[in-house]
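Suppose a colleague, Dr. K., hands you the sequence of a protein chain of 201 amino acids and asks what its three-dimensional shape might be. Before reaching for any lab equipment, you can write down a predicted structure in token form. Begin with the sequence itself:
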Amino acid sequence: MNTIVTLNVGGVLYTTTKDTLLKYESFFSGLFSNNFSFTLDNNNNIFIDRSGELFKYVLEFLRNNTLPKRALSDKALLEELLQEAEFYCIEKLITEIKSNLDSTENIKKIRLWDLEDYLKKGYHVIGKGMEPIHYHRCPHRHDPERIGENRYHDSKCRHSHVEVVEEYVPFSIVSTNSPVVPIFDVSPETFTGEQIIEIFK
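The predicted structure, expressed as tokens, is then:
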């Protein structure tokens, strides 16, 4: 019979089955062997002194054989998950994380005035959108002519009339890999500026 197990990982409780945890040869294989000592919390749950927040991704991988899509494009999260995967000795998870880390290295968010240079380098456009930026502008034209990239530079004018401007600026997402799906479009009508930054930062 498949046994239900509750783990206390860094203070966060997870309930799953023994079969799920033993899907791959890993840390858990030793944990449930007779040769492995472990610590129990006050409720007799097995305690593991690792990140409780990150363990949810490890458990999702054990349940579904893949990481959730929301994790695959987040380089910082993948780097943290790699440390957890190595601790739990789940080789298949380690391989998947490293593969996705390699692919994220080839993705960049650029301004439109840089697009031509990146296309010449062999990049492909895989997405586009808008995001808010803030800069200082002199209304009395004490700044150099604002063309292209220079348009969004902070004013060097130090007079009190200088304005703080918020403006939505287009960007492109480019990759060295050819797109295999339609180009996605992130527009302010659908997402707030904060959401756009969160998706592509």
